[in-house]
Amino acid sequence: MLVLTEAAAEVVKAISSTPQAPEGSGLRIASPAGSDPGALQVTAAPGPDENDQVVEAAGAHVYLEPQAAAYLEDKVLDAEVDSEGKAHFSLGMQGTDQV
Q: Which pTM was predicted?
């Protein structure tokens, strides 16, 4: 199952905890139909879709569409915010020091 770093959890919470966001909001990661499984789309979501796998870490919610969940099974999600306030996500393999 996808693992979130502490930094990724904080960024996800910051993105999904706006005043207008409903309780349980998070980020949804999906693989567009007919595309490379590694071509992922990340969007804010009010909650999981029916078949989504739910990952929770330190109060952050990430919803994984089934094809994306299969691709991300052995990955670690990390994130950082640049000087302009934009979030940048990166993936690494579980069990390695690289993220």
A: 0.86
